[in-house]
Automatic annotation (TrEMBL), chains A, B:
Domain Plastocyanin-like, first and last residues per copy: 30-96, 105-263, 370-490
Highest taxon above the source species: Eukaryota
Family affiliation: Belongs to the multicopper oxidase family.
Subcellular location(s) of the protein: Secreted
Protein name per its UniProtKB record: L-ascorbate oxidase
UniProt-listed Enzyme Commission number(s): 1.10.3.3
Catalytic activity: 4 L-ascorbate + O2 = 4 monodehydro-L-ascorbate radical + 2 H2O
InterPro entries xrefs: Cu-oxidase-like_N, Cu-oxidase_2nd, Cu-oxidase_C, Cu-oxidase_fam, Cu_oxidase_CS, Cu_oxidase_Cu_BS, Cupredoxin, CuRO_3_AAO
GO molecular function, one term: L-ascorbate oxidase activity
Length: 513, 513
């Protein structure tokens, strides 16, 4: 899946700690290749022929020079360093990690469609709304298994293709592993479970977590985690690594990989059926797991006690001229064709809405439990201008969609910052009551956080990174349908922009020969 | 099918003759829509939701103002007025047509794939060459019939979809019809036959033809014809209109439409099986029909008797660094990223090869009947610079491909000019002998002409249209693989170029704010 305006590349950057810093030169060729990650052959966007792309193994402090070539046919591409470009934290360098392990392994979790993004887009943006449907497969480290009997006789689908043999996670009996987990799905909340093994969550979005033991881990699109896994079960067999959709009614088969105890054959199937994971609609289970993720006691970054500004965002499904949309405080966001940063620096202020985006909604009387009686919203791309250095709270409030008795999960992702997760709740956020329950003692910092069905999520961040930053639901279809806002802070501190970036919308006219 | 660098829109411009000229304003919205022309639903490029696009009915001399909006996701688009922008001929205006008819009907003939162009492109440009395969369907006026049992159970394929009910050509018993035929296929030579009815060819590529009666008509990608059809058979039933692939071994079912005699039901199937058309590999049949197409005696434009220059082009399949290519005189053409016209006017002469493209090949000793022993070619984009006003002959010589006992058909199309078709032959062109047999008496003028397997085709044109003009095989895959050359003539007579077209390659840097 890729959005039309920017391709998002997730990186499993393996950060290790070391006193030496290195300079690494890396070449990436981005192009279409036929790949069969779930046995069904499909033209896919790849980096150096791979999807997911190649892993970069780096030590914090290293300098990476990445030379990317766009070999796509007509699409522009940009690289989003998801979660990497946040400001350096004080404890970041030279610190010992608060957990131990022998080796580490990556687990990249994904959902996968055989139809292309543009088909989804046409369906989402049609008056006759047409949902592309749930994923065809779930992939673990780029491998899944499609039921080829559902493909046509002329489709290239072959379950004996080695490209789709299940991913094997090789472990030595008795050793301890750090699993670096990234949910790079475009839609799905994914529950990861490893048969017969508990996992200890130790890190989330680059921040150390007070260790918490779980039987399985809920991950939301855009999140990263580290968990500790001990290979302490009987080494005479392999075990299932399973991936299940949660939060939406699953219509996609369980994704599987093999936890491969040495010296068993990595293709040897475990003797039992794969575990089926938690109930997909057990919101309380997921909400409670979210609440368990707090900062490791030795690595707490205490948030400012009081915000300078609080923005309440009502997340609702809506309609504009009959088109289905998502909106915040009844405004459905659309991207201006000229980039904000260039527009602000070059005084092209007419290219986006001059008014401020709405700060709040009628939180006292709004009924979050019912489909809205008046679902009409408006389009907009006005922004929130934040005072540089100020502390900002955002409370995300979920509601019923246009479908009775339905509320969806939204993983919200903020560019350019990490934020504190101050609290989650079920039901309607009450500023008088709920702010008193905020965790100001050991909140975790993250860049992506779940908003649970019918729930609320409160975050706090410092507006200390000069620029223009998106904050959006990380489900691609939702972003496309307007589920995002934009923050500006300290744009006057951004230096002179290079002429070479003047390429989109009216900025093209500013480009110097 | 569409090429990545320019979308080619064929227009069935219905030119009628009248003393009044009109101004017409037309709006085109180019966008992706789900269409099911052969019962299989596919995201398709459409104009105003239609493929083929809407017909423009105009009278020669009318002024058409066409406002096109590009609603594609990432692709640029350009409109090629195929065969329309040739210089006005002296006889063009106010002349009576040399044939009579009661009404006219359009027949747009096409080949259709369910997989997208990019999949074809990846296959064509891979070291491991992978041909997308023959068309899934043949379409008549945008309608065909796919065998849905070949589609997967999840594919939207439905033979009862009214979108793919066969095209009906309604006729009144006893009346005479002009059928305006356009072959808009990206690959296929298509034989059109109307059960029980002969056709009289009266026009080709906009020029009147000495009437010739045929049982069926061979058409090559990019060609247009008019034929006269008399509805003089028994009106108690309908008749088949059939389309068959010729020149390549057919793997696509016959395309069918209904010749519907009023007042029969247009959906009533004719009682017999559809005619099967001529043998696909009967080259002599097609060559002889090509030779029958000469100018109408009252509309002859006599060519200059002697050319100033003759260019011989050996059409061969070749390899470059292992990649499969097509080449002319051993040069496989590739497009420069900066347009030639801008490059020449702005003296950016380094953006294409400075040397001239090769004028000839070793025509005395070259063996056209065998796969080449040394298939290596080179890439190039040098051009032919023609003296303005000069007369130029081009002789296209076909050869055996890299496959033993195989030679393909290539429909060559020239931009910016009509040319005289001086002769066709089978075997090796011999300048000493064959030029004496040229038809200088009543050659037809065309803009697209077939080069038959193992044959040669000779054309003549006047370099009298200032600009830079492509001459290429109209099979999209062949053009993509290098089968084209470029002519320049009188570029100094082209006026100042508007800044607004400075958009591609280095020309972007010339754009003024």
């Amino acid at each position: 899946m890729s959005s039309p305006y920017a391709l998002l590349f997730f990186l499993s950057l393996l950060l290790a700690f070391s006193v030496e810093s290195k300079l690494q030169h890396i070449k990436w060729e981005i192009r279409y290749s036929n790949r069969s990650p779930d046995c069904f052959t499909k033209l896919s966007i790849t980096i150096n022929g791979l999807t997911p792309g190649p892993t970069i193994t780096a030590t914090e402090g290293d300098t990476l020079v990445i030379f990317a070539t766009n070999g796509l046919f007509t699409e522009n591409t940009s690289i989003h360093w998801h979660g990497i470009l946040s400001l350096a934290s004080g404890w970041d360098e030279g610190t010992r990690e608060p957990f131990e392990y022998d080796e580490e392994r990556s687990l990249v979790l994904n959902d996968w469609w055989h139809r292309r993004t543009y088909e989804q887009e046409i369906g989402l943006s049609s008056l006759n709304f047409n949902w592309i449907g749930e994923p065809d497969s779930l992939l673990i480290n780029g491998r899944g298994r499609y039921n080829c009997s559902l493909a046509g006789p002329l489709d290239a689908c072959n379950v004996t293709n080695p490209e789709c043999s299940p991913a094997a996670l090789a472990v030595m009996p008795g050793k301890t592993y750090r699993l670096r987990i990234a949910n790079v799905a475009s839609l799905s909340a994914l529950n990861l479970e490893i048969e017969g093994h508990n996992m200890t969550i130790v890190e989330a979005d680059g921040h150390y977590v007070k260790p918490v033991v779980v039987k399985n881990l809920n991950t939301y699109s855009g999140e990263t985690y580290s968990v500790i896994l001990k290979a302490e079960q009987s080494p005479s067999r392999n075990y299932w690594v399973v991936l299940n959709v949660v939060g939406r009614k699953p219509r996609t088969p369980t994704g599987t990989a093999i936890l491969n105890y040495y010296p068993n054959n990595p293709l040897q199937q475990p003797p039992n059926d794969p575990p089926s994971g938690p109930l997909w609609d057990d919101t309380m289970y997921r909400l409670n797991q979210s609440k368990l993720i707090v900062s490791h006691p030795e690595y707490i970054q205490t948030p400012p006690r009081v915000p300078h500004r609080t923005i309440l965002l009502l997340n609702s499904q809506s309609r504009i001229d009959g088109y289905l949309k998502w909106s915040l405080n009844n405004v459905s966001y659309f991207f201006p064709t000229t980039p904000y940063l260039i527009a602000m620096k070059k005084r092209l202020l007419h290219v986006f809405d001059p008014g401020h985006a709405p700060e709040s909604y009628d939180y006292k009387s709004h009924d979050i439990w019912s489909a809205p009686k008046n679902p009409n919203a408006t389009l907009g791309n006005g922004i929130y201008r934040l005072e540089f250095g100020s502390t900002v709270d955002v409370v995300l409030q979920n509601t019923n969609t246009l479908t009775p008795n339905n509320s969806e999960t939204h993983p919200w992702h903020l560019h350019g910052h990490d934020f504190w997760v101050l609290g989650y709740g079920l039901g309607k956020f009450d500023p008088e009551v709920d702010t008193r329950e905020y965790n100001l003692v050991d909140p975790i910092m993250k860049n992506t956080v779940a908003l649970h069905p019918y729930g609320w999520t409160a975050i706090r961040f410092q507006a200390n990174n000069p620029g223009v930053w998106a904050f959006h639901c990380h489900i691609e279809a939702h972003t496309f349908m307007g589920m995002g806002v934009v923050f500006e802070e300290g744009v006057e501190k951004v230096g002179k922009l290079p002429s070479s970036i003047m390429d989109c919308g009216e900025s093209k006219l500013l480009r110097k020969p």
